[in-house]
Amino acid sequence: MITLVTGSSGHLGEALMRTLRDRGHPAVGLDLKPSPFTDIVGSITDRALLRQTLCGVSAVFHAATLHKPHVATHDHDAFIQTNIAGTLALLEEAAAAGVGCVVYTSTTSAFGSALTPPPHAPAAWVTEDIAPVPKNIYGVTKSAAEDLCQIIARRRGLPVIVLRTSRFFLEADDDAKLRDAYDLDNLQANELLYRRVDLDDVVEAHFAAAARANGLGFGRYIISAASPFEPSDLPELRADAPAVVRRYYPEFEALYRAAGWRMLPSIDRVYVSRRAGHDLGWTPKYGFDTVLEALASGGAFRSPLAVLVGEKGYHDRVFEDGPYPVAL
């Protein structure tokens, strides 16, 4: 029972390969970039390579993609070839090979402009029912690839689960103002309240999705850390986020003060991952509770797996104004 991991040299791909190997599951890593976690160097657009690679594969974790930070360095055709054409090739070849299921790693960025409410409006309550409004080629291609997953699942009978993951990378934010205003750990700890998930929890979501795929056939799920908030909190979250956080976590201010941290003054969205919990049986282990426990004990709020994988970057060169060439 072999698992194929595409994008095996990336953040999630490495984490998936590490976990599969640690658990004694046969796994094959496929990526354009060589790495200790990549067994086959090649492209997901190469159908001959896919046919050869998929022989004997029981499940595919499809994490290969061009990411949001590549928008400024890659043209639209590159995104279309990798994120759409490559995904279609993989799905069709997986169906032809009799693969048991595919878990497709998508992104909450597919929601695009639907994530940002107008000024003075309440924060957005983001569930799977919100229609995407992509705002760049990354969002367009990830959303289109999700639809291809649904078509292949329906027409070819290949179980496919789409996971719309929130932020799990350790790299600095692509917003220069946030990079300048907040310590990296402080900002990413804040994000666990509403728009971030630990890498270990993303890996476990993929395993849970593969286990439930045959029974579900197809599904789209948001994968993000559990949020304490409810829809009734949305107006105040936009206007005074610290006051809302204080109600749920009265101890947070003292712990933040001791660490020299600050809460964001406003939160504009809340990713809701409850459907993944219900349908996939997935429960994230890391969240804002973990942050406060770590601050109180002097430990780390990230998982050992997230720390082990660390930062990888998205480009082969360093840019003058930070980790990304432009704000994206």
What does this 3D model show about the protein?
- This protein has 328 residues and is an alpha/beta fold.
- It has a domain at 2-172 and 195-226 and 271-284: NAD(P)-binding Rossmann-like Domain (Rossmann fold), CATH 3.40.50.720.
- The protein has 13 helices and nine strands.
- Strands 3-2-1-4-5-7-8 form a seven-stranded parallel β-sheet, sandwiched between helices.
- The radius of gyration is 19 Å and the shape is globular.
- The model has no long low-confidence stretch (mean pLDDT 93).
Could you name the key traits of this structure?
alpha/beta, 328 residues, Rossmann fold, two-stranded parallel sheet
Tally of individual helices: 13
Helix content: 40-55%
CATH class call of the domain at 2-172 and 195-226 and 271-284: Alpha Beta
Write the H/E string, N to C: EHEEHEHEEHEHHHEHHHEHHH
- In terms of DSSP E residues, the strand content is 5-15%
| Mean model confidence by pLDDT | 93
Strand order of the largest sheet: 3-2-1-4-5-7-8
- CATH architecture descriptor of the domain at 2-172 and 195-226 and 271-284: 3-Layer(aba) Sandwich
Oligomer: single chain
CATH topology of the domain at 2-172 and 195-226 and 271-284: Rossmann fold
Name the CATH superfamily classification of the domain at 2-172 and 195-226 and 271-284. NAD(P)-binding Rossmann-like Domain
N-to-C terminal Cα separation, in Å?
A: 40 Å
Class from secondary-structure proportions: alpha/beta
